[in-house]
## 1
Amino acid sequence: MLSDSYLMWSRLAPTLFWFTIGILLCLTELFFAKNLARNYKLVPLITGINSIILSIFLFRTYYVPDWNWQITYWMGLSAISVIWLRPMLLKTKKSNIRDATEAKTIADILPGKTGKVLYEGTIWQARCNDKTIAIASDQTVFVLEREGNTLIVAPENLFHF
């Protein structure tokens, strides 16, 4: 017959292990988030939370599964969470620009290259939406969208018939 202290330790050891791993993974995300490549953002946090969930499950259950099953549960839950939750949490922010906002070119925009425009009192890099068109300086253009710090513009003469 096994002693009560052995039974308690056999339940508590995996719980403490998974809880510690979970805390360490969450701290990894906290301290190294800026150094992680975009492909790995939130992965340590999600897997750490899953470790903590597994530790709670192991603490609450009477029967502690074998070590191989614990790893399988954790890996399965983590893989599903990373595949399903992570894209929802990493939604890219798209900035909306009002339709047909005007800007004025202050430097030529050559075909497929970037130039400069004056937009709302600020100088921006700009690129023509049609990569075959050149836009001369001191022309009015319409801002169609923004990609990072570059405005996508179209010449005003495209809109006059």
## 2
Amino acid sequence: MARYLGYIVSTIPFGLGLLWVGFDSKKQGWHDKIAGTVVVRNRRHGVEPVRFDQA
């Protein structure tokens, strides 16, 4: 639910929250950061573990 409410917050300032994906190291938009989520895509040629550097 928080992710969907985050979409509203992300689009209000000229869509900057959605464009943020291009600059973020985890490829998260503001809606993902608000909800604490990240999208993980499954590759056809096997499964790769998701690792993020600790900041």
## 3
Amino acid sequence: MRLPRPAVLTAALGLLASTLVIGATAAPAPAALPNPAGWNLVFGDDFNGSAGTGVNRSNWIYDIGHGYPGGPGNWGTGEIEYMSDSTSNVSLDGAGNLRITPIRDGAGNWTSGRIETQRGDFQPAAGQKLRIESRIQMPNVTGAEALGYWPAFWALGTPYRGNWWNWPAIGEFDIMENVNGINSVWGVLHCGVNPGGPCNETTGIGASRACPGSSCQSAFHTYTFEWDKSVSPNQLRWYVDGQQFHSVNQSQFDATTWTNMTNHGYFVILNVAIGGAFPNALCGCTSPSASTVSGRPMVVDYVGVWTTGSGGGDPDPDPGTGFDAYGTIQAESFSSQSGTITEATSDSGGGQNIGAINNGNWLRFNGVRFGTSAARQFIARASSGAGGGVSGLVEVRLDNPANAPIGSFAIGNTGGWQSWRTIPANITGTTGTHDVYLTFTSGQPADFVNVNWLSFAH
């Protein structure tokens, strides 16, 4: 989507322990992302948070201005808006949604929002599949008032970061594009060379269809992209509400083009552009116009990335054996995470801890072996430098972050972010082998805990 287009688009385009443990009432569990059978969640954001606040910067980067520094102007597409990090343009609505809102000021200048994932390692392992999905309501505007609106949900090859001139060789997957309030979703692949090449640049290889049932603008629909390395030739597939409407496969491309597009990870982008080559091509005019209305947001319920293995850039550190529940599991050896950072620790033995943990973050540890004798206690090495009144729960969940916790402890300030305590909590008796999630729940948005290691006991 973001790189140059031609004038015409084809395809019509629970134990309380020690003085730091506080008797807080458990906050509600994070809203569940979908849990498709056979898939493992490796990244997710359900945009829960207070109305009028920005996105979690541990998950997202705000793109600012009219282009990447040193890259093509107007984001390479001719769009006219200034991308900002203002909550007027990018904010949570307090009901579990993100709103990206284009606004025109009194002088006729447009601002809007564009965010991209901090992570750029989303790709399937050999023999596995990757799934990128979002539930979105497009800006609810049609006709002349919608002229120039260009919402999109897409992924770009990570080698683009810091180069800005290697498109389209590094690949682009447009999962959902829409222009001018038309009741249609476009799915497009960009690759190879520009102009021309195997992806017919700058148009790309695309397909489109109307949204099932309710229009794209009047209701939420689910937009999904799958990158399948489990079949030969490999395939790329596009879906709306579970209905496939576009696909390409490896045999359509020469080996160099396919390798240059698929030998690296991708990052995910959400944005609403105003004007540019795509809306202009569809209307045969220059957009926006004086009739285009300001302030109609794209509303995003969630973004998730899943793999059929432990992949997505976070392979199981010991894929053959997983983790021994009764040994010390270092927090930084997670198989996957959302929203946290890894940093040096001053705790005994040195090494690293997981930090910047706040409400809705999680860590996953694949294949934790509990054996046949039930574990009944969870122990974690934790610390907190949270401010007064800030506290939260460290919870243990099995196999899915949406499942009910099997145990938890509450934590507030321990005297500093490197003031460590060993905290036990009772858990429901657990046997067998499970993916273990540490989930973090707080009634406040601030960071409230660091974790160095965890273990279980009978």
